[in-house]
Request: fold
Amino acid sequence: MTKVNSILIIDDDDVSNFIYKRVIESTKAANKITTFVRAREALEYLEETAKSAPGDFPDIIFLDINMPVMNGWQFLEQYQSSFQSKLGKRPLLCMLSSSVYQEDISKAYTYADVKEYISKPLTSQIMTNLLQKHFS
Amino acid sequence: MPTNKHLEKSNSLLLAARENGNLGLWNWDTNQDLLMLSTTFCDILEIPHSKLQKLEDLLDLLSHDDKESFRQVINDALKGNISFSYEAKITTAYEQSKFLTFSGDCLFDSNHKLVGISGVCFNSTGNKAKSIEEALSQNEEFTSKLLEHSPSALLIHTPDGIILYANQSTANLLQAPSQQDIIGQSIHTFTKKENHTTIRERIKSILKTGSAAPKFEQEFICFDGSILTGESVIVPFEWRGQTVVLAVVRDITEQTKYLKSLKSSEENLKELIKNTPLSLAMLDKDMNYVACSSKYLKDWWVKDEEMDMEKIIGLNHYELFEDVREDWKHLHKKCLAGETILKEDDFFIKADGKREWIRWQNTPWRDFDGTIKGVIIFTEFITKRKESEELIKENQAKLSTILENLPGMVYGCNNDPDWTMNFASNGSIELTGYTPEEFLREDDPISFKKITHPDDVDYVWRKIGEAIENQEIFEIQYRIFTKNGNIKFLFERGQGVFDKNGKMLSLEGIILDVSKQKAIEDRLRKSESNLVEAQRVANLGSWEWHADSKELSWSDEYYRICGLEPGKISPSFEHCIEMLHPADRKKAKEVFNQVLESKERCQLDARIIRKDNEIRYVTYRAELITDTKGEPIKMVGSLQDVTDKKKAELDLKESENRNRALLSALPDIIFILNVDGTYLHCQVPDRSILLLTPEELMGKNVKDLFAPEISSQFIRKFQTAHDTNTIQTVEYSLNISGEEMYFEARIVKYKSRQVLSVIRDITKTKKSELEAKESEKRFYKTFHISPVPITISHIETGELLEVNDKFLQLVNMPREEVIGASAIDLGFWAEDEDRTSFIAELGREGRVYGFDGRLRTKDNRIKDVILSAELINIDNKNCILLMIFDISERKQAENALINLTEELTASNHELRQFAYITSHNLRAPVVNIDTLLQFLDKQNLNNPVNTEVLEKIEISVDQLKSTLNDIIQLVAIKESRYEPDEKIFFEDIFEIVTKNLSSQIASSGAEFTFDFQEKYIMLKKPLLESIVQNLISNAIKYKSDKPLRIGVKTYTKGEYICMSVKDNGKGIDLSLHKDRLFGMYQRFHENIEGKGLGLYITKSQIESMGGKIEAESEPNIGSVFNVYFRVHKDQN
Reply:
């Protein structure tokens, strides 16, 4: 089973974060799972990590769309401009939303960094496939 | 037995054969010399099996050398019991050379007896080495010839660029004296420095791939320093044992230049088209626009959609102009096939039904090699020109009608020595017997010079010459010979026509027949001489005066002339003088003395006044008779009464005067009347046109002939003309043979108590005038029944001369208020700039079509109108014909539609958002619960994990409930619009809300200020309460560290009542969140409890009552929410 070092989850819903953590843990896909309910804080965390411990920079980022104050799209804008060329590796950015609207899905893929769009729920099967596809 | 080695070898052969894909099997029975071959074998050899029965048949296919050595190989194999492989060259049935590899193994029967050879055969031509070698040696001569004589420049150079070979074409191309001058040089000598790297790269690349490099366009430097553009292709090449590069260079200098100039000429053409003041468009073969002029767009583009010279490029003509006629499309096709089509006048019917005349030309345009690339369309609107041409034609027709009907001949002639005629009226036939055509024909035309009486020619030309020199009118009388040889006396009056520089353009005039007058004159002349004769016999008196006695004696005749009885008085000199007219007396004395002194014969014309006051004109003749010494003896003389002669002279003068009057009036019939209306004289060119003969007419009075209303008019005018010596005119109509005829009488004073009345038949003129009036009537009729409002106004004063009923309806004013007033007086123009630009355009273009304007009616309503105007001439006044198309209703409908569409778009957007958010907020917890249930340890319910999972399930269920409640609330708002409005006092509402929120208000310490300029409003009470509560609780919730102040104000703003709630709280950065402020589930403060639905619900509530909400906010300063409700119709 392929394994990555670090996974970052950004979702304003505590329950969802609880579930994701449990699912990812069950697949033993990562050494480290970090969750944030506020996108802005996640950004700050990423900036900090890139500076102090680049090795710990997440391999996978799961990002929700509908969040207060800073939603998924605003996060993506900021993320792209902040980490445009500084990073050695590009983390796998997955949108993880309960939205099943085609509009959202199409919009997600207009961002170069977004490689996957996953409609909730996140299952261990999806996790396994994701790792197989991108990290084996 | 085949050894292992054999097997190995045949294996490798088999492998090779299989790889080549063409393996044939063969078997030779040594005893019976029978050859067995597989079909593939025969295919390889291209020879049927029937022709290969024995080994020898096969060997015959081989070349002579091969045949023997292959036979040897087989024999060796048979002897040595070994396997073999031999490659031989064969010639197939189709004369192709092939290399075949035969391999074989000896076969033995069970007694180890040799029975034959079996093996495979394959086509090894694929190895090619041999055939290429051969081809090379065969083709070397050909190749070298090709190289040498190729029309292309061919160069062979080493990979380093040293030229090994160059053909004559290369030398020509590079302007080298000979091929030898190039060989040994580096190719870089002839190429540009900046291209050297590319050239090296290209060589490297072809040596690597072994195939040709693509064409490369570059500049070459020739021996004489000139530059040429060439296109080179290079291929790797084996030449004399080394790898070299073959370069083929083609000179494309001319082509490049041509292409460049072509491109620029095409661009120039496009620019030219764009900037030309003409209407031009350039289209490609598919009728898509390549370019067009601004005039073209101005002329043709009538749609509302904006169009400009850039935008039109690439658009299709037929798609832009759906109404292009089929015949025009057909002509476009013809043009694209190479024809240039010019149409001087064509027309199409415009939307308003009018004919628009155009002139157009379609010309194909081509590229450099003459291929048609499209069509250039030129158009010109010529309606105005066409109309004025028609008008001129009409006027000319009118003029010539008049001219053709004049008595006499009107002419125009060129300023050349023969005065060649360029115009002659029909009168020429009556006058000269010649038709106008005979005067005007090209070939030997009749000229007046030819027909003028030879005695008069000099006089005529001198008179005309003098008149031209002084730029005066000339009047001459002369004789001509008519066509049938008669002499006619003509009167001609004419003048030169000069341009503004004084250069004479032509000579024009009128010629009349005065033979009759001349005849009268002649008769008078004749009678004069007769009179003289008669008087000489009968009417000559004589007298004698004796010098010494001073005695005078008269003959009887003398007495009679003086009106005296002979011998009644004794004559004396004093008597003589006394009898004379006082004015003649002095002269008479002088003449008398003169005769005495000079002793010469003398003559005196004088007047004698008889006792009864009758004047006699007389001529005195006197002669002095002297003695031999010269002393006077007596004076003798005669007295001749010349009164009759004198009268005839006067008659002649009168007749001449009459002629002059006649000429100045260009008469048809001339009457001389007494001022009382009695006819005295009549001159008529054609007696039949009078109802009475001239004789019958004489002595009659106009009163006897005309109806009282006409005759009284005549007599009044006769009197006026006579008294004032002015021209008077009377127009009257008579019914002649059932037809209404119109006449014009021009009356001038002729002499004392007499007038000259010139009657002219003006029926034709009158009828066309009446027709014009009729058409004018028709115009006004159309004007009045037009469903489109129309006005006619005076261009200078703007005064409205006529308007139709539709216009009156449009502006809602009675006719009497409108006519005579100007548009400015009436304030029709809603905007002054509209009027100014409209008038400007009208002045500039002569007409205006489709002007968008706004018009004000009397009751101050504004109407959207489209105006079209044209300059017209009515009653010799320049007027504006203005048509007004009222598009207010259409505009209103359009606006209503736009509003409706906007509303629908907004509500659609909202609905989608609603569906999106609710589905999201419903789906998320459901999905979570689903996953959480899987986490539950159902076997061991006491597992501590379950507690945590159940806790999360509970949260998710709460979220689900909350979202469902939100939806229910929102649906309730949408439903509440059907509840009735009631009168609500703002003060009451705020009292209720502050009571509801009293605990929060108390804990926040908020202070309120109220300013209710509007006291109440008609609304749904529960909704307003909810709105106010939401706004106030928001203000409290998002308070800052400062003490909270909330200001509430109500006031009227336009058609709205505004309720504004202002706080000094945290505020929101609108530059970031403006779009989402009133959205669903939007939150802007992380640390404050909230679902982000409050403002969304508030907005929905406000909008459900037809209101709107706006926000102003600044972080850390505060927010203002302005809620607007439309003023209710029951408000006041």
Summary: Chain A has one domain: 4-135. The CA atoms of residues 3 and 29 of chain A lie 5 Å apart. The first strand of chain A starts at residue 4 and ends at 10. The mean pLDDT of chain A is 87.
